[in-house]
Amino acid sequence: xxxxxxxxxxxxxxxxxxxxxxxxxxxxxxxxxxxxLVHLIEAAFGSEVALSKLVNSIGYRSDVAPTALNETIIMLxxxxxxxxxxxxxxxxMVIVGGYETFVSRMHLEDHPDQPEWLSHVNASVLKVKLATxxxxxxxxxxxxTFINAGNYEVKVLMWQTLIxxxxxxxxxxxALADRLMSGPGSRSH
Length: 189
Known about the structure:
Number of strands: 0
Strand content: under 5%
């Protein structure tokens, strides 16, 4: 290879620190998940300090300060934990799929833990999967907002709903564009 094309091809390795940074973000999400889970368990056993931390973290407000877990608080905390897991899944898709697609092959073909989707990942498939994951995350966030709707202004509820609908239409447009670009003979994914 000539020097300039070789340099251009090697520049893909500049993305490596970005993926390592996303791995660090993943570790922070794991830590956050466990902190919230420990607070939930402590609150279930009557810790008012843990309950207060949960109430603050989920933005729950009531006319009377809760003295024990109630169904709404539990549901909001569990949805927050699910949200963390879904964002973590999104991170894995970006880290593993992006690295495999744009930097270097991982050679996981014979590995028993290879994700099923990784065997046919490319930039187009990755975009559709990411859009679908973002819709799932947005759905959980919107559900948390509606469960706690009394603590939000109507304007906030409206904008969150409109943003979610925009995510839906964006994902549909990405999937449609992918389908149109892949042509009639290559609808295997």
